[in-house]
Amino acid sequence: MTDISATPLLPVPDLRLVAVTWEQTQRWLTTVGLRILLTLVLAVVAVWFLRRLINRVVATMTSKSARRLAESGRAGKVLATATGMAGERQRQRVETVGSLLRSIVTFVVVTLATLTIMALLGIPLGPLLASAGVAGVALGFGAQSLVKDFLAGIFMIMEDQYGVGDVVDTGEAIGTVEEVTLRITRLRDASGVTWYVRNGEIIRIGNRSQGYSTAIVDMPVSYAENVDRVVGIIRDVADGLGQSPEWSDRLVEPPQVLGVESIVGMTMTIRTVAQCAPGEHFAVQRELRERMKTALDAAGVKAPPVGQLGGPVGGPP
Which of 44, 109, 157, 307 makes the best surface tag, with the fewest CB within 10 Å? Predict the structure, then answer.
């Protein structure tokens, strides 16, 4: 038979100790635990509220310039449509700036909530903050170029130096902007080559599409022609282009005939200029040349003698 007295007995839990432990747990839950839960709830509410506020503020700020421009008459409407302020450019600015601000707000709120919870749990924050400071300094020295790119991208986007669809000259590459991020700008040049330019490496930039572009057409005629007659014919052509429904949306202002630009040998050059929507000056120049050529031929205006023609001004045809 088995000796029952030799079987080891399990320790009987002390009910008083269990009661004390449960009481301490309840006290912790009603004090520290409640504070931790309240901290988490406040952090979630703060992130939600600040993100909504950022979306509204950024959308309002970036749309003010477009609205003012659209309300400024014909020129404003042409520029607002051509620059894409209500389209892709506006959308990307809002998304980029909003994303940056939302990320900053989320990081700050989450960091503060985490530090608060750690303090409530009794975890010492001094060594952690010191280690984070040293790591931040090391990261700043090791990633200077990356930080430089991001800072340049932030200011470039906030100041609206250029956007999607603009033709820009970065010094190293000239092309149409296809994408703008905080770190790089992607361009496509006239040959179809894609360029990736780091924002921090852009020292200067020329925006050929901001505001408006200028079409310049120099029409050479014979020196023997009557100036008033030739200028009158060209002015009629310019007025006709400005009143054409097909071209009025591309012109900020009707073309202006400035008069005789130069006289070289037997060649007299009449200059005409027109303010156009960004990127439309090449098309306007071609149309003006075609209409001028037709009108001058119909009026019997003589061209300069062979060998006396001056070079065209105003860019490629």
Answer: 307
Using N-to-C axis directions, what is the helix angle for 126-142 and 144-158, rounded to 10°?
80
CA–centroid distance for 181 within its chain? 8
Within a 10 A sphere around the Cβ of 75, how many other Cβ atoms?
15
What is the C-alpha to C-alpha distance for residues 196 and 179, in angstroms, rounded to an integer?
A: 10
Q: Is residue 100 a contact partner of residue 182, using CB atoms and an 8 Å limit?
A: yes
Q: Quick check: 311 and 243 in contact, CB under 8 A?
A: no
- CA nearest to 272, candidates 259, 287, 283: 259
Distances (CA, A) of 207 to 60, 110, 161, 211, 250: 25, 40, 8, 9, 18
Cβ neighbours of 145 (radius 10 Å): 12
Contacts of residue 239, Cβ cutoff 8 Å, sequence gap at least 6: 254, 255
Contact 285, 238 (CB under 8 A): no
Distance CA(138)–CA(6), nearest Å, equals 66
User: First and final CA of the chain: distance in angstroms?
Assistant: 115
Q: Rounded to the nearest 10 degrees, what angle do helices 34-70 and 88-120 cross at?
A: 160
Tens of pLDDT, residue by residue over 209-228, are 777 778 899 999 988 888 89
Element (H, E) at 222: strand 213-222
State what percent of residues in the chain have pLDDT above 90: 9
Place of tokens 């003012």: 68
- 55 closest CA partner among 88, 90, 86, 101: 101
